[in-house]
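Database export, one record per block. Field names are fixed; values are copied verbatim from the stored entry.
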Amino acid sequence: MKIQVAPGLWIDDEELLFRAARASGPGGQHVNKTSTAIELRFDVRGSASLSEDVRDRLERLAGTRLTQDGVLILFSQGHRSQELNRQDAVRRLLALIRQAGIRPRLRRATKPTYASKLRRLEGKTRRSGVKLLRGKPGKD
């Protein structure tokens, strides 16, 4: 089954690998018996669903969550239920992929306008006048 990330961007759910783990933190005896935390693994470099530029941006966005092999690992343990943690991990992955799918705008270098140059120079002149007035009296 395919999961829609954004319009025109889909990933195959078979590319997602889930593993249950024991959650840390408080919870009494129950926390020692159940594996409610979810570890989601997504092979960014091996994904056929992502284009090359989205893949590169996703690798940069992933940061330390990306392994040497290019596998993105998300760990979710905020909920007490395994299913809610699974949904949370998938939601976070989709948000990352959506963010990677946005092409950054190219910055075009522009020259400062003549008026802005004049304003800058006038401000510098005004400032130097203020500093001149701070000197000792009678010194020219």
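Remark 1: Helices lie at 30-33, 52-62, 82-101, 114-133.
Remark 2: The beta strands are 2-6, 9-12, 16-21, 37-43, 71-76.
End of record.
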